[in-house]
Amino acid sequence: MNKKQLTMALGASLLVLCVSVLGYFAFFRTTTPVWSPSNLLNSTLEADHRDGQVYKITDNGNKLLSQMSRTVSIGDELITDSGRHYRIKTIDGFNAQAEFTGMDRELVGYIDEYEDITVPVAGGQDWKQRPVALYHTHSAESYVPTDGTESKPYNGGIFDVGDAMAAELKKKGINVLHDKTPHEPRDTNAYYRSRRTVADLMKKNPVAVIDVHRDGIPDPNYYSKNIDGKEATQVRLVVGRQNPKMQSNMEFAKRMMAYVNKVHPGLVKEIFIAKGNYNQDLMSTAMLVEVGTHTNSKEAAENGATLFADALPGLLGLGGVAQTPGGFTSPGADSSAGWRTLVWIIGIAVLGGGAFLLISSGSWQNARKRLSGYWGREFAGFMAPMKKRLNKKGDEDDNDA
């Protein structure tokens, strides 16, 4: 291969690389399922949620902060219902240690904002026409004391928990889309399959999309709580930290925990910010909700789901938030993600073009000469019509004189 052929080959490779990356960014922000190496990694992490597996998170003083069956990674974050914010710093086996980063001022602000609310505020008529969508990525998840097993493929007890949530919403006059599409098996592609379900649900313009799960830790007491005189299970909210809508998802989760706990104190246990996507890039009001664990009774989980649904309409109808066709989004919540994507696209295009110019020119000096010559020709071409018009105007002025 001679030098010219090598230059052309390298240039073509760079062009293909740039087009591929740009294509990835363009499609990643749509509602269609997309494959990419990073999505494959995220899917693996999202699927690593095994019943009986227990990750324990402690602070620097070895105080237990949380436990869960989903895999915990360095960089994951935890926000307690009181607003204490932690970040995972080290992991040794199934033991993770978290560092306190301070009080979450945004969550504390929402808690203060909802403090004086005594009656849930319903949304307007236009909002009531938009449904709340429920679905289940792990459709086999079940509750052992009631269902007799932790897993019932294609018909898990988690569907009944979703039904309890849907029934309470319907009692309040809310339109509900409860999709029971199974996404078996519970493997690395479960979230890829459920992504198609979410894309279909979004065609109905929902105000929120909620993926209903349960945890898999053996201890039933961890989630058990008497709330409003009912034996119920607490709820955990999970936000994926690897998606361009993370900021708006986080805002939604914080508002949700603050408001639901105002209406039913102690119901939402915490927010966990996990390594993964969980299809939350599709909508600003996408949320993963874990209702108890597999060793809780299904009746207790249904009670928890009912209480959660009881508070949800008031949250979605509260002011200070713009309701757009894309969902419940505060002004500018996703603007930073959009600008970051645009900057990446422009940066990649500039780097790719510069690399191609350098390779084809053979040296920085030749590249500068070609670039200056190009801009010189373009500038001259741009100025020529203007000079012609100015000369013509000058001649007309002379004639008038």
From TrEMBL:
InterPro entries (alphabetical): Spore_II_P
Annotated keywords: Membrane, Transmembrane, Transmembrane helix
Segments crossing the lipid bilayer: 341-360
Superkingdom of origin organism: Bacteria
NCBIfam families linked: spore_II_P (TIGR02867)
Protein name: Stage II sporulation protein P (SpoIIP)
Native source species: Sporotomaculum syntrophicum
